[in-house]
């Protein structure tokens, strides 16, 4: 479902993250640069000054629910999200699906940059940020406002982990993604590196260049590079889990067992949503993907 026709309603909505994006991104100009340098025009922050809460730290105001999945490559998160989507649709829930790096706006640039190895860690980060901003405006906000359940295969935490693992300054990455909404539920599928490697290599002949972190130059051997890069990503994910309240799931468990845990967690955050639907306060209807 393409939400671009609703562009006008998104832009005109007062106080929406889309409207706040200009202010937030303007402030980001004076935030630390990707390599950690701070603009001279930005005075030193007072030690006693309390930073304002970001959108990621406050519940969103919309009728719908935002459910995200995170995890390193080979964690099985996409399989679990697909099973969840089918389960929700079968029960009549209005569902909208969106995934990382799927915006038509940057698809060609991303493919060309990867193919010709033109992407630096910073440009790689920026292209993903454009992808997210486009999908936030057209694929996340409109269905949330309409009262739908938005399922996101990867969210900003992917950038917080991968981009920082590539050497981009964490404050800079977070400033770029400042318009992001706080999900109602983020499921973190944690899996050991060896299991993720086994899963990926059982399905294809070799690892992808960027998936293995070959662009970072950690090792000339793709498998060893994958171990080193994804281990760093895994460490950052573990830190983000505590900071943002992501719900960890043992991604090494059997698929049905994982799905049972997923559905239990989803049912918890849908209790109020179900009450609103029962009372007729949520007019969204189920739609096919």
Compact description:
This protein is an alpha/beta fold and 289 residues long. It contains eleven helices and five strands.
Q: Tell me the name of the CATH class.
A: Alpha Beta
Model regions low in confidence, pLDDT < 50 over at least 5 residues: 1-31, 37-49
What is the H-and-E element order? HHEHEHHEHHEHHEHH
Distance between the termini: 7 Å
Question: What CATH architecture would you give?
Answer: 3-Layer(aba) Sandwich
Return the CATH topology: Rossmann fold
Shape: globular
How many structural domains? 1
Number of helices: 11
Which characteristics define this entry?
11 helices, five-stranded parallel beta sheet, Rossmann fold, 289 residues, alpha/beta, single chain, disordered N terminus
Write the layout of secondary structure elements.
Elements: H1 7-12, H2 17-28, E1 65-70, H3 77-90, E2 95-99, H4 107-115, H5 121-145, E3 149-153, H6 156-165, H7 170-176, E4 185-190, H8 193-203, H9 222-244, E5 247-250, H10 255-269, H11 271-278
Parallel strand pairs: 1-3, 1-4, 2-3, 4-5
Helix pairs in contact: 4-5, 6-9
Give a written overview of the molecule:
This protein has 289 residues and is an alpha/beta fold. It has one domain (66-278): Rossmann fold (3-Layer(aba) Sandwich), CATH 3.40.50. It has 11 helices and 5 strands, in the order ααβαβααβααβααβαα. A 5-stranded parallel beta sheet has the order 2-3-1-4-5, sandwiched between helices. Helix 6 packs across helix 9. The protein starts with 6 loop residues before the first helix and ends in an 11-residue tail after the last helix. The model is unreliable at 1-31 and 37-49 (pLDDT under 50).
